[in-house]
Amino acid sequence: MGTFQGKILEVNLTSGTIGESMVDKDILRKYIGGSGLAAKLFFDCVSLDVEPLSPDNVMYVMAGPLGGTAMPGGSRFSVCAKSPLTTMWGESSCGGTFAAWLRSAGYDGIAIKGASAKPVCLVIQDGKAEIKDAADLWGKGTYDTIDTLREQNGGKTKASVLSIGQAGENQVRYAAIANEKRDFLGRTGMGAVMGSKKLKAIVAIGTGKVDAAVPDVFAEKRKQFTENAKGHFIVDIVKAGGTNGALDIGAMMGDLPGKNWVMGDMSAYGPKIGGGVLNSEQFLTGTDQCHGCLVNCKRVVKKENGSYPLKGTAGPEYEGVASFGSLLMIDDMAAVIKMNEMCNDYGMDVISCGSTIAMVMDCVEQGIIGSGDTDGVEFKWGNIDAVIKTIENIANRQGFGDTLAEGSKRAAEKIGKNASDYAVEVKGMEVPMHDPRAFHSMGLSYATNIRGACHTNDLNYSAEQGILVWPEIGINGGYDQKSSVGKAELTVISQNLGQVINSVPICYLLMSVITSAELVELTNAASGFDYTLEELMTCGERIWMLKRGMNNLMGITAADDTLPKQILTPPPDGAAAGSVPDLKLMLKEFYEIRKLESNGRPGKEKLESLGLGDLAAKL
Amino acid sequence: MGTFQGKILEVNLTSGTIGESMVDKDILRKYIGGSGLAAKLFFDCVSLDVEPLSPDNVMYVMAGPLGGTAMPGGSRFSVCAKSPLTTMWGESSCGGTFAAWLRSAGYDGIAIKGASAKPVCLVIQDGKAEIKDAADLWGKGTYDTIDTLREQNGGKTKASVLSIGQAGENQVRYAAIANEKRDFLGRTGMGAVMGSKKLKAIVAIGTGKVDAAVPDVFAEKRKQFTENAKGHFIVDIVKAGGTNGALDIGAMMGDLPGKNWVMGDMSAYGPKIGGGVLNSEQFLTGTDQCHGCLVNCKRVVKKENGSYPLKGTAGPEYEGVASFGSLLMIDDMAAVIKMNEMCNDYGMDVISCGSTIAMVMDCVEQGIIGSGDTDGVEFKWGNIDAVIKTIENIANRQGFGDTLAEGSKRAAEKIGKNASDYAVEVKGMEVPMHDPRAFHSMGLSYATNIRGACHTNDLNYSAEQGILVWPEIGINGGYDQKSSVGKAELTVISQNLGQVINSVPICYLLMSVITSAELVELTNAASGFDYTLEELMTCGERIWMLKRGMNNLMGITAADDTLPKQILTPPPDGAAAGSVPDLKLMLKEFYEIRKLESNGRPGKEKLESLGLGDLAAKL
């Protein structure tokens, strides 16, 4: 209710107590909101050597100044904690409706400490919160859980549910959290953290009005932005095809990975699992969007499509299609949609899940393991039944699925021999579905991003595509995608901007639509601060450095800033044939620009200039 | 050789004489080059009531100041004359290599008057030209003709051939001209004009250096533009997928016509005939580009693809795929590639050919004609054999094909009843494959463009997509695609710009890459003039008005500024469901802004302000 001022609902599941806190205004200004503010609060109150799945880990659910306003792309939020997948800083963001109803219920964020002895859920309603028994929900998927909780809470329209599925309960290291049955916080295993706390779900019910600090200015700027956005080609394209609409052209550009990153030319998969297929009459029934948005990027699919009936109607995003499609050499769209939904319902990250399965298929092909090691499941490229069975086994930690529930890095270590060569991950997190051999700066993103191999903590992908050009901060456009020259400079700027937009927060897709002036004006009108673009970018750098320093304190060194072998091998054909990112060059420049020391830690002077003297002292 | 100065090779095929002329410098400045300069020369020396297929029609082949330089997209050229399809001003432009070698051979353009009594070809080599017997080539397709002429001329690499096929010889009203076996001047029937003159081919062989007027400035600006262009997303996307690469997303946006424009949602055709299919291993072997370019938009295809072996390797553009694919409800890519090549080899415009066949299929469905009227060919949606047989019949003017060789308008009039309702043409020219119901301004383009229904005499498509935003001339971006408000203003600006870029000329695709400042600087450095952007835009307006006035003198009135019935009927489903352009509104505003009188003619004051007093006097 009202404006964003860092009002945090403080929940202790061990003691069953509930309280509130307010964030200091100076901290708000410096860390904005979202995952930036969560990182600062975490750093100030959690021991960094905490075990991720222990009660001492603290999980933050955090909106930002734009959350719950009618700003398109502004209702994203982050869930943050130490990650069980990477054992360093973890965060996951999505759109959906939760930020809107949490803020409508009177809170800007939630801090969840401790762990309950028995399954519970947290129900927040208009300034009050209650921890309720959730024994009847334990063991259920996210879809049933959300249906039940909506029913129990009167099916209110002004409500939003976060829920884990069986994967979160079973602490699969890449367990996800569902927001309603359509948006998913996939990465870094925040669902496992929730599961370790026996917190099945969070319901936010709000009837209050969410305000900007300067409502009239905000309304005018928002209206103007929305009008402009309506005719923007990115909005038109994403509206028409969804995030999977560009799979076809991505494949032609060498961006779509195939066969655990070994293949080059995957363009034949466009007509099989691309935009036209997902948008065809066989599957599509409509589109949908996050709170306040206008893009309608979400694909609503039929429950009955002939081959694999579904429980719900949320179609896959590009990442899910690639992770279960081309990466595993599966070209049956109905099967891919099914696998994606299974992950949604069990509550698992599609990228980590698909990638871990791809690693095993590769190990089988290489003769590293045989079917005797995999409970008889035939891990062969394109084997749909094996994948469907394995998703179930992972979520329930059954048999060999228990090994795979640990993620590709740990699973490969357990498999032994040279299995780790086929685990395509950085710092324990599986690589998303954009190929750095087609876009070199993505290689540096994956090697150095805050949460491991990740494409949504910077803007490199949009910058390399030339659809985000902000010369005012040094994203000048005109990048040669298959060159590594100048990419370190781009990456530093774009990572800092990435921290800003995960803190404001605003959707990555709309970053190709909004101007920097609009972003500053809207952030100011929403927050009440008078940021300049320069100050916002300094906030971004501060947040990046804080998270990096925390990662260092959790054990990350320069040796971890690397890329998996498969990504450093040139593709045999396709648009990126023969191309590999020059990681050595980019890392050298990156370290110089970032003022990182040879051990991978931020330099003291840099930290102090950003007001991070306390972090410098710990390092 | 040297710089562009309007050095015209004057050929009279009746008398067999060859001469040269130089264009006055003031005219060069005012009409730039390309189709603008050709229109001015035509206006000054041809009687506008000339019969298009008579010896008195004059055909101009015209390069521009950028032609033959290494400027990407700059080596386009135009072939112009009174059109046998529309009986008004006709022009067709393409890229390829001819402009480069013509200029290298010492000429900026060719004027071809009269008609030969027997088949001839024109061979131009380094400042000399010769009319040669071509009896042995008559009756051959463009592919064989080009092969033979290259062989006869020593297979020189610095040579380029223009040729007509059987369709041009037989004066099919939409006959095309091939430049080598890869680029085609399709629209308005320039191939028929060439055929009426018994001119089978033109060969240009040049070893001279093509210069810009200010070579060092040109070289520097060109280099800089090329560097920037390399990383531009439009270049990347077109390079990756070719012009057909966007068919998929176009279909999702409601842009792809189906079943003679009756269908709405054609998104299912993306996976059948879209970018991924054409770029798949089954068909693609490589890419190619026009002289001096870097985009590589051309698709090189396999001669053997299983179903329909080809003679050559030129893959279809988007327009060809849509015209023979979705428009006819054919989803077999191999068949579509074959039909496209048949048109290339016979020398026929793919849009007019596919559209005329679509009209007949619709007439059969409506019961207007039966198979008895079509020589037993079954004109049924999706009937591949019928289309292949009909393309052959049209090119050779055999049986019912002779009727269809007249174009959809005349053919529908001959068929009678209400067949004209199913002829999707404006002023006799068939509508290209972008749906005005998804992009309203395209409706005004089609209704008012200089050569009838045409998408390459303005920039509306790029402007509506938001990929060409030049606020400095009033293309402000942010257009609501399915609104007609403000589209007249856009169209006037974009048509004037269209005349500039067909005169400079530069490729439409690169107009989303180049800035207005770069265009002005490069045009100045190439031509030696000191244009401002404003003066260039005035040239564009002058050229548009001259061509419009000529059209009026050839019989065009306000009643001809209209759209076919199918386009004014809302699509039943898909992204443009229920949408139709408000043509009445747009036309009213267009007439006001253009200062057109109610009879459709430009006002005297406007013409005089543009230095077109002589045109005003004739009107």
Question: What is the strand and helix layout of this fold?
Answer:
The structure is a homodimer of 619-residue chains.
Chain A: E1 7-12, E2 17-22, H1 25-31, H2 34-45, E3 59-62, E4 77-82, E5 89-94, H3 98-104, E6 109-113, E7 120-125, E8 128-133, H4 142-152, E9 159-163, H5 166-169, E10 177-179, E11 183-185, H6 190-196, E12 199-205, H7 215-230, H8 233-241, H9 247-252, H10 270-273, H11 275-278, E13 284-288, E14 298-301, H12 318-324, H13 333-346, H14 350-365, H15 384-395, H16 400-404, H17 408-415, E15 425-426, E16 429-430, H18 440-448, H19 460-465, H20 487-501, H21 516-527, H22 533-553, H23 583-594, H24 604-609, H25 613-618
Parallel strand pairs in A: 1-6, 7-12
Antiparallel strand pairs in A: 1-2, 3-4, 3-6, 4-5, 7-8, 9-10, 9-12, 10-11, 13-14, 15-16
Describe the 3D structure.
The structure is a homodimer of 619-residue chains. The first copy, chain A, has 619 residues and is α+β, with helices and mostly antiparallel strands. Chain A has three domains: 7-205, Aldehyde ferredoxin oxidoreductase, N-terminal domain (Aldehyde Ferredoxin Oxidoreductase,  A, domain 1), CATH 3.60.9.10; 245-423, Aldehyde Ferredoxin Oxidoreductase Protein, subunit A, domain 2, CATH 1.10.569.10; 440-456 and 458-501 and 532-618, Orthogonal Bundle (Aldehyde Ferredoxin Oxidoreductase Protein, subunit A, domain 3). Helices cover 38% and strands 12% of the residues of chain A. Chain A has 25 helices and 16 strands. Chain A has a six-stranded mixed sheet with strand order 2-1-6-3-4-5, sandwiched between helices. Chain A has a six-stranded mixed sheet with strand order 8-7-12-9-10-11. The interface between A and B is large, with 44 and 44 residues.
